[in-house]
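Question:
Write out your own:
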Amino acid sequence: MSFVHLHLHTEFSLIDGMMKIKPLAAKAAELSMPAIAVTEQHHTFSAVKFYRAMQSQGVKPLIGSEIKVVKNNLNEAFNIILLCQHFEGYQNLSRLISKSYIEGQHRGIPFVQYKWLKENNEGLIVIDCADNGSLSNLFVQQDESKVEKEFEDWSSLFSNRYYLELQRIGAKGQNNHINQAINYSEKFNIPVVASNNARFINEDDFEAHEARVCIYQGYTLNDTRRPKQYTSQQYLRAVEEMQELFSDIPEALENTVKIAQRCNIEFCLGENFLPHFPVNENETEDQRLIDDAKIGLQKIIDDDEKITKENSSKYFSRLDIEIDVITKMGFSGYFLIVADFIRWAKENEIPVGPGRGSGAGSLVAYALDITELDPLEYDLLFERFLNPERVSLPDFDIDFCMDRRDEVIEYVAIKYGRDHVSQIITYGTMAAKAVIRDVGRVLGFPYGFVDQLAKLIPFDIGMTLDKAMDEEKELLRRYNSEEDVKSLFDLAKKLEGLSRNAGRHAGGLVIAPKPLSDYMPLYCEQGSHATVTQFDMGDVESIGLVKFDFLGLRTLTIIDWTLRDINRIKKLQNEEEINIRKIPLDDSATYALIQRMDTTAVFQLESDGMKKLVSRLKPDVFDDLIALVALFRPGPLQSGMVDDFVERKHGRARVTYMHDELEPALKPTYGVILYQEQVMQIAQVLAGFTLGAADLLRRAMGKKKPEEMAKQRTIFVEGSVNRGVDERQAKMIFDLMEKFAGYGFNKSHSAAYALVAYQTAWLKAHYPAAFMAAVLSSDMDNTDKVVMLFEETRRMKIEVIPPSINASFYSFTVINEKSIQYGLGALKGVGAAAIDSLIEEREENGQYENLFDLCKRIDLRKANKRVLDALIKSGAMDSLGAGRSTLNENLIKATSLAEQHNKDIDSGQNDMFGLEAAPSSSDKVDSSSVYDVVKDWDDKQRVMYEKETLGFYLSGHPINRYKQELSHMTRKLFGIKKGDVKVAGYIMSIRKSGMREEYDVKIDDNTSRKVVVVKSDDYEKYRHYLIKDHLIIVKGNARNDDYYEGGIKIMAESIFSIDDIRKPDNPFNLVSSLKLTLYESEMNNDMINNIKSILLKYKHDVSNVTVKYVKSDAVALVPFGKEWNVRISDDLIDELMNILDIKQVEIEYNSKVKDNN
């Protein structure tokens, strides 16, 4: 008598399972289990992983799922387990689960309708759950007739495939259930099965399991209110334990084995199921591919002056070789499908990238317009993409415009059928930092305590709790010395790495030849038909389905918008439009821009680290750009490869090729082995490898397996010697190949991305305003990026004109070669619908004359008071004939009159709006007759409102009032270099660093934004200064750090307020005196008395006061006596500015600080 677990949840039951697949398989094998089932709740996320893991351990895998069924109404829903007898049963389970997500969800829970089981029950065994099962719910009612009727219903559907579950896990009411179940079992001949409803592997995992459940439910472990649905007995009991537990009901154990014997599902792993491309009658996919590729190649040859009649034959020869491989491997349909959706995207003006990854090495792809780079011109190898000696699915990665990628996915779904197409699921896991926070919360520890521990964990990819304790000694010390820390970490380790949530893969899409539910269940959010597969990318490929990567690349959108602006103007001027595919790749202005490092916003070339590499390399040909993309990685940068490459390019080191026959392959990289393709070419040229075999060698070198490398070395050396190469030289070359293979990069990818980089650099060099307008539009929801781009436009001497309701469009637009109009879409609190309605009305009926005219003409439901308030504060309504404060004051009045006007029109009354309040747009009136005028906001208030609505200061900056004063002691943030510095800026944000016990304080001085790093102890010391929108002066040390924007961070040593700096005992105090400029024309007794009163209020023996008295015919400097000395402060300056202009109040200084850097 044996036993098989038939009710089990793994970690992929995201609510209540915590068994990791591989440890589960190992445990099942250790316990000599003949078979085991996985029955996740509502899905089969783990099915393939479970199947493979069990097979690897010699344990028979059974696949099923625990589902909720609705027979009459939702309140009476019950749980059953469905187990698959064979693949047809699995397909029926897949269809049921898919349908439950697409059609049966309620409050996020999928339900299977009982009637669906009538059509999809073949090959499925039902186990009626002991907890909330169909019959168990009736047992409570003790109505024998209902039990008999229910059993008859199930028997009619499933015949001898219906079982009743028995559990002995220490749960409340289970003994009564067993008694009733045995009673009815005997009466109606219902077979029973024993189960342990397993949720965790070992008995001592119960607390960790409860913590897992609490994390999901939001409770703490000791919360008396939390539902306790599980017991410590729900572990993976050994067969012997189950035999002892059910010794009185042996048939319940025997039935589990019988069920396991009846279930014999086999996944078709290793077999491919490629989608079909629709072709004409009497036409095959292969023939269609051949025809389209040859037509496409001939068109390329006809259009490309570089391809002569003499060398065109090598193109057709290469094409024939590739087609032969593609058709023999059965991938013609794949190529046609990719070519088709790219063609559709281009026809619909959706930007598509020129290529990505190894697919750019295919001439067939180039001929089909899948890629836009000639692989022969740049020595790109097809075998790097599709190797005839190693059969694997092709994998084109396609870049689309970020904003319109979904349109292409929708096209594919419609063309091939929504049930054949789906995006791919991903799983988030409990990572080290997150699991400490989660477990700390459910254990009820204080936030501060848990936060301290979480921040001690290094912020590195792949970080684990064990690794963190190895690297962070303080963490290890606390673990060993504090009981609370130990208990928290010990519990967290049991949960670390578990699957936590399901998501959607960024770009993966699967297309199947039959409905996807024939291969796996589908999953979707309630109310959405955007499905995702229930298998992740690895499992989708394991069952033989091919994925297509639809990736979003914002740079393509930028190129598209730039060209649209350029070509709109060219069309008006009857000039030839720009085709980005036909720009010359040897343009001197483009390379000059790159060499100047003017590469901000240029794809791939804008980081500080890349700019440094550009400054060394000074690329002047396209091959250099291809190399740049490959060189700017940790391996080449740290190995000395970059230094070698640069020195050889500039003639400071000798270029050698190791062997004369290698010169053609290595010449573009000055003899340096930089690309993976070069490794393949060396093996082909020297040792006679086929390119397919050379690709296998490349892969082996990447994996660094000693046995395989020794074998490959022998083959390479023997092949080279047979072809006349010296043995010692052959060994030396192989060693170099092996060394550089670890750093080698995919040249096809480098070339494709170098082309995009070149295109953006070319646009910036020749059409800078259009390019920067497009870049600003693409990032207008990222305030920090916009500020950085504004710095760049200033450097380029391009003016960004402030937003205007009468001139701006949604995006940033080009006015001329030196000016860009601000886009309304960059305003905070103003939605696209409001902007579209405002622009539509303006374009149709003319510019807005004033606020009342605007409110009368627009749809106030879309552009409501909140929107209009934001437009006023941003300065977008400055053209409406009044100051911003006046517009703001009249806003309620204007909207009220407009609303009344609309009501009057609706009711047929005379329109009194124009007569009483404001003229129509055709009337010209004096603004003063329209508005209730109030005093303008002062400069500080005005720019603060701009920051509120734009995210930064536009027409001015609050630091401007201190500009002269700060220039004596600090330097600008823009262009700051490594070293000791004194800087000043307004605080934009304060963020506690997730990596360290530090705070990142972002400051802005109207030239740039930089992060000041403040240590925790210093933060407490300076907390009273560290307030958003306050000015601080920082003495510190600027350091290079690519993690931070601009590649610089400033480590704070001292922080001051402006008033601190003015104190006499401050070492940076340079204030000499206060100078007031007074004009004869404005002088009167009231003015003099007001000034005296203010000076006396701030009297202090610190700074003397001088008056510059200006008459029409003379100017005199009048020093006040010591009795009028003051301490200069913001409050004093503010009061003086209330009666004088900002230019009339001036602080004078002794001299500049010597070390202000």
Observations:
- The longest strand covers residues 979-992.
- The radius of gyration is 37 Å.
- Residues 912-928, 1153-1157 have pLDDT under 50 and may be disordered.
